[in-house]
Amino acid sequence: MTLSEFIGALKDNPYFGAGFGLVGVGTALAFARKGAQVGMIFFRRHYMITLEIPSRDKSYHWLLSWITKHAKHTQHLSVETSYLQHESGKVHTQFDFHPSPGNHLIWYGRKWIRVERVREKQMVDLHTGTPWESVTFTALGRDRQIFFNILQDARELALKQEEGRTVMYTAMGAEWRPFGFPRRRRPLPSVVLESGVGERIVDDVKEFIDNPKWYTDRGIPYRRGYLLYGPPGCGKSSFITALAGELGYSICLMSLSDRSLSDDRLNHLLSVAPQQSIILLEDVDAAFVSRELMPTESE
Description:
- The protein is of the alpha+beta class.
- It has 2 domains: 114 residues, no CATH class; 123 residues, Rossmann fold.
- The protein contains 9 helices and 12 strands.
- The strands form 4 sheets. The chain has a 4-stranded antiparallel beta sheet. Strands 9-8-11-12 form a 4-stranded mixed beta sheet.
- Strand 8 and strand 9 form a beta hairpin.
- Helix 3 packs across helix 4.
- The protein is elongated and about 115 Å long.
- Its main location: mitochondrion.
């Protein structure tokens, strides 16, 4: 049988024709799928922009509140329960709903934005026990300005919620984290001190804030400290809270009696404290070890 006759016999064979057709269709579908994947990767790289915000970033909680405000029609929610104590002492339970982990669509700036919230189940924060999370924004186009606008709106929303209140921070590990909810600012006249003491401190602090150039020109570190002493309940902490409210500053709480506080950690926390904040060092006397022996030990 010649080659031409063999090829003719294969062409006339219905089983061979059907098998060859299936192979051709399968090959075409494989190429089409691969082409679609390559095309999607090319499209995402050149015609879409993404922004990832990890939960360790300071703007993460701002963005969660912003997403909650704009994703009103989402049906996938997670709840955050908190307790608020009023000035009268009454405790109120508050439920805050946030979009749950998953994908959400938000219409913002005449664009659809895809929001993906991911929760790492195998990685948790050692200080709070909560799992690490991240939020990723995806939008069409190549203009980054939309992400700057979102971050700015989230920041302004957070500041509006804190308006007229004092934010408290506490040291956790190597960073400062918000402690509870912002407290209503306390007026200075509500703190009773010895005549003239509070006024002198307030005037001195305001003069210090208004003259940073004086310190810079003389090469002096721009910082100032005050030692408040007295028995418990005499108004030291209350005055600091009122002073922070008067200046519009936040308060960073740190106890020097913390056994995990080393010199390196202390210096690091002081250097990364939030701007416009008062660092309150409690239990200062615990930082000094008395070298005097007890009468029983000297004997």
